[in-house]
From TrEMBL:
Keywords: Mitochondrion, Oxidoreductase, Pyridoxal phosphate, Transit peptide. The glycine cleavage system is composed of four proteins: P, T, L and H. Belongs to the GcvP family. It comes from Coemansia spiralis. This is Glycine cleavage system P protein. It is an enzyme of class 1 (oxidoreductase).
Length: 1027
């Protein structure tokens, strides 16, 4: 504790700032006070523990304020470097203060004039949770039987705690480095096996964003597999879920496809002739009917189209799978497999198809290959299909794709196994039969011809039924004045069923006799048409029969987790991915029932807590980006790009400029940029970068001028994907505006901007944010993603709408269609971002950006003598990330970037981003959350690897057999009887002393990519492989 006389004025001011009441006015005062501090002092104040002493000039109010100050302040927990480290790091870079460093990094012309203000923020951690709990409690947790693709679930607690709430699972990165990702790769392969088994279709992926966008992906596969461009009509049955139809309609626009909505039973398909690319139906349909689509499949195939079935995954355990009745593609949501409702997401969608369509499957596919020792190893198959390779030729822009939720769904199937899943499905159906009988006995009409779990009930007065349900805190589906929908789920109890029966005026006392009369399984039920009960086995692979006790399950989850390097193990310095801290306080609220158990279509009056939080977020994100309006609907950054470009196109159409259809994209852009542009119906024109990595302004201007009549937009990433704050950005924006185009800013690198500059301040018209990068939502092994877009006022009317987003008079809130199935996308994880912003406030987030830049430059500076840094500004500074040019080693030693990446695994690190944006280089982004010790360890490792390369260059190790090309080294390898290499086992596994305390063992040796792609296996290998 400091003595009275040592308390600095800075500390007193900072404390006072922290303790002022939290209104926007006071936060301005607090900002103003802190602004008078030199950054170095402000940092000290922000990280200093609360002191109880006071200078003699302090008033008693100040002293009292200090006495009450909470100690669990957040900024010092979020940022890695300690105060003393910041000083040392700045000194190493030759700066006296953080502000001096920022001045040398960020062009003065784009700096914000005033500090970023976030009202009602800078809470301590406990305070934050109390504040958010109060907001959460404005949500009313009703029992929702609304269905429409979302149901309540029983999340097995062993999965809830050990996956959803476990940083060992939620902080992993997309498994691009298979040797340190075998755990989640195995789990995602289990997911694919669940999907292929249940749908009866052999090719699948892991995973997609939601059912609506999965329908969009299916549309594109149908269009692309048609030989003629004129085959561009797609039929959609009117009884698909409304949100699926709405997202499909949106998707079709960019491809110039026509969606024909009708009743598949009466529609004259021959009227579409050879224009029919495909047909979408729902199984069961949105009102519960289980239809027989065998004849439809023949009709659609006869006309040369493909049959797409949006299926309910749970029902497929007991109903004939789509693959057995002629479907070419099956899509749907896996939420029902143990993932909370979360007000609409995040949930993983599935996509399964025939072998003929295998190479057209969008997104990430997990495959089976072998490692250098010949052992089985899992990997992302067909990695070259990723958009950053295929770019404008990509047929989908899917990148981040709800992997964590796919893991949950897979584990749900592993835990319950085939019999357990069938029991759940049959139980749901049995309850539904009892409800149907009760309702009919009460004199009402069940309109369904067949059903699995959903009834469409005709009633004299639907409003009266809803009122009675409301009294029991029950939500039913509102269909019309005389029709009500009910969907049952695995969480249903006898008591709840009794409430439902009572709501419909049924006889509760008859329940038990009806229960004994109900068929115990779908296969014996009259409610399912002849021939549609499932005959084929499900989940036959042993993995689904091994882990049914909680002890076994816990060990399986833990065993897989141990194979994966996550942030719980070490830094994951992936350029362009911002793998920062996902703080526990930020994550805790997502499993509160007030957030987790809300149906996306629950009435507005029950979702006031979400409304409050989303309003806050929309306002705060607009402030952060310098924009006027925000939507949180997109489920990933790429989905945000697509939504933003559509907003631009809709705006231009409203100005009579529909002819604007060209999008300029720099050659350095992330592959999702051109892919999204194509999806939005734009033609891509590539703009060059100069030798220093900057946008080539002359080329930009020439192309903007050449295409001025058709120029729609430019997509710019800032700081650039090369990791530099380019000086020319303002001129680039000016050029585009001059030629009538709009500026889309990709916000993947926003972590370097917050509080220093902003897309809106620079003049961009629209930008997305990757909340799973900048704003602390965990990557979860490849999703949940949230990609809000923020726009200037003129684009606000063109943000995506949704069938559920209506004005008071019932008219749509936006004339532009939705990009996601749920109105607020992955709303269930928005509390993470809300908490991040409210914990840090504008001041804290600005400090975060400065620290991110400091960490990157500190590392670049340490590595400069050993590797060349590809791009920096005129002061030699990078932004929040930098590229190490490893191409030179190819000639000098035969070493490629991939060898360095694999060797880093031996040093206990996740390799940085590889081969993008520049082939055969590596891009490092440490983030602000890493401590100086961790940065130093990584630099030590990289320097040691450079020395290892030198040994090859000097002939001390051969080009063919050396410590890099043999990396990573597994336990099996270093403990084998035989050792034939020129270097020792000790050097292979423990090259630096820190590894004695912290060794992470890759669980397989280097994985053979080519073999995996040639021998594509996308579900769990057959039984004999396990014997
Ligand atoms: C620069 C850039 N833009 C866009 C994206 C796509 O974002 P998402 O993966 O959230 O779809 C990424 C993803 O890494 C990126 O780095």
């Amino acid at each position: 504790m400091l003595s009275r006389s040592t308390v600095s004025k800075a500390q007193v001011l900072a404390k006072l700032g922290q303790l002022l009441p939290r209104s926007s006015g006071s936060s301005m005062v607090r900002g103003a006070l802190l602004h008078t501090l030199k950054p170095r002092q402000a940092n000290a104040a922000a990280t200093a523990p609360a002191e109880t002493g006071s200078a003699s000039s302090e008033s008693s109010g100040d002293i009292a304020a200090q006495a009450y100050a909470p100690l669990d302040t957040f900024l010092r927990r979020h940022n890695g470097p300690r105060d003393s480290d910041v000083g040392a790091m700045l000194q190493a870079l030759g700066f006296a203060s953080l502000d001096e460093m920022v001045a040398a990094t960020v062009p003065a012309s784009i700096r914000l004039a005033a500090p970023l203000e976030i009202s009602d923020s800078e809470f301590a951690e406990k305070e934050l949770l109390a504040k958010l709990k109060a907001i959460a409690q404005k949500n009313q947790v009703y029992r929702s039987f609304i269905g429409t693709g979302y149901t309540d679930v029983v999340v097995p607690p062993v999965i809830l705690r050990n996956i959803l709430e476990n940083p060992g699972w939620y902080t992993q990165y997309t498994p691009y480095q298979p040797e340190i990702s075998q755990g989640r790769l195995e789990s995602l392969l289990n997911f694919q096996t669940v999907i292929t088994d249940l749908t009866g279709l052999p090719a699948t992926n892991a995973s997609l964003l939601d059912e609506g966008s999965a329908a969009g992906e299916a549309l594109v596969v149908c269009l692309n597999s048609a030989r003629k461009k004129t085959r561009n009509a797609f039929f959609a049955d009117r009884n698909c879920h409304p949100q699926t139809l709405a997202v499909l309609q949106t998707r079709a626009e960019g491809f110039g496809a026509e969606i024909v909505v009708g009743d598949y039973k009466t529609f004259d398909f021959s009227s579409l002739g050879d224009r029919l690319a495909g047909a979408l139906v729902s199984y069961p349909d949105t009102y519960g009917n289980v239809n027989d689509f065998r004849a439809l499949a023949d009709t659609v195939h006869g006309l040369g189209g493909q049959l797409v079935v949006a299926a309910d995954l749970m029902s497929l355990a007991v109903l004939q799978p789509p693959g057995e009745f002629g479907a070419d593609i099956a899509i749907g949501n896996t939420q029902r497999f143990g993932v909370p409702l979360g007000y609409g997401g995040p949930h993983a969608a599935f996509f399964a198809t025939t072998a003929a369509n295998q190479r057209r499957v969008p997104g990430r596919i997990i495959g089976v290959s072998r490692d250098a020792a010949g052992n089985r190893a899992y990997r992302l198959a067909l990695q070259t299909r990723e958009q950053h390779i295929r770019r404008e030729k990509a047929s989908s822009n899917i990148c981040t794709a709800q992997a964590l939720l796919a893991n949950m769904a897979a584990m749900y199937a592993v835990y319950h196994g085939p019999a357990g899943i069938r029991d759940i499905a049959n139980r749901i159906h049995r309850f539904t039969q009892i409800l149907a009988s009760s309702v009919v006995r009460a004199g009402l009409v069940v309109e369904n011809e067949s059903y699995f779990d959903t009834l469409r009930i005709r009633v004299p007065d639907a409003a009266a039924i809803h009122a009675r349900a409301n009294e029991r805190r029950i939500n039913l589906r509102r269909i019309d004045a005389h029709t009500v929908g009910v969907t049952l789920d695995e969480a249903i109890t006898r008591e709840e069923l009794a409430h439902l029966v009572d709501v419909f005026g049924g006889d509760v006392s008859a329940l038990d006799s009806l229960a004994s009369a109900a068929a115990p399984s779908v296969s014996q039920s009259a409610a399912v048409p002849e021939g549609l009960a499932r005959q084929s086995a499900i989940l036959t692979h042993p993995v689904f029969s091994r882990y049914h006790s909680e002890t076994e399950m816990l060990r399986y989850i833990t065993q897989l987790q141990g194979k994966d390097l996550s942030l719980a193990n070490a830094m994951i310095p992936l350029g362009s991915c911002t793998m920062k801290l996902n703080a526990t306080t930020e994550l805790i609220p997502i499993t509160w029932p007030e957030f987790g158990s809300i149906h996306p279509f629950a009435p507005r009056e029950q979702t006031q807590g979400y409304a409050h939080m989303i309003d806050d977020l929309e306002r705060d994100l607009a402030a952060i980006t310098g924009m006027a309006a925000t939507t949180v609907q997109p489920n990933s950054g790429a989905q945000g790009e697509y939504a933003g470009l559509r907003a631009i196109r809709a705006y231009q159409a409203s100005q009579g400029e529909s002819n604007r259809d060209i999008c300029l994209v720099p050659e350095s852009a992330h592959g999702t940029n051109p892919a999204s542009a194509v999806m939005a119906g734009l033609s891509v024109v590539i703009v060059k970068c100069d030798a220093k990595g900057n946008l080539d302004l002359a080329d930009l201007e020439a192309k903007a001028a050449k295409h001025s009549a058709r120029l729609s937009a430019v997509m710019i990433t800032y700081p650039s994907t090369f990791g530099v704050f380019e000086d020319g950005v303002l001129r680039a924006i000016e050029i585009i505006h001059q030629y009538g185009g709009q500026v889309y800013m990709d916000g993947a690198n926003m972590n370097a901007q917050v509080g220093l500059t902003s897309p809106g301040h620079m003049g961009a018209d629209v930008c997305h944010l990757n909340n799973h990068k900048t704003l602390a939502i965990p990557h979860g092994g490849g999703g949940p993603g949230v990609g809000p877009i923020c726009v200037k006022a003129h684009l606000a009317p063109f943000l995506p709408g949704h069938p559920e987003l209506v004005k008071a008079d019932g008219s749509p809130q936006s004339t532009v269609g939705p990009v996601s199935a749920a109105p607020y996308g992955s709303a269930g994880v928005l509390p993470v971002t809300w908490s991040y912003i409210k914990l840090l406030g504008g001041r804290g987030m600005t400090q975060v950006s400065k620290t991110a830049i400091l960490n990157a430059n500190y590392m670049a500076n340490r590595l400069r003598d050993h590797y060349s840094i590809l791009f920096t500004n005129e002061n030699g500074m990078c932004a929040h990330e930098f590229i190490l040019d490893t191409r030179v080693f190819s000639k000098s030693s035969g070493i490629q970037a991939i060898d360095i990446a694999k060797r880093l695994q031996d040093y206990g690190f996740h390799p940085p981003t590889m081969s993008w944006p520049v082939p055969n280089t590596i891009m490092v982004e440490p983030t602000e959350s890493e401590s100086k010790e961790e940065l130093d360890k990584f630099c030590d490792a990289m320097i040691a690897i450079r020395e290892e390369i030198r040994e090859i260059e000097e002939g001390k190790q051969s080009r063919e057999d050396n410590i890099l090309v043999n990396a990573p080294h597994t336990i099996a390898k270093v403990s084998a009887e035989e050792w034939t290499h020129a270097y020792s086992r000790q050097r292979a596994a423990y090259p630096l002393p820190y590894l004695r305390d912290r060794k992470f063992w890759p669980s397989v040796a280097r994985v053979d990519d080519a073999y995996g792609d040639l021998n594509l296996i996308c579900s769990c290998p057959p039984l004999e492989n396990y014997q």
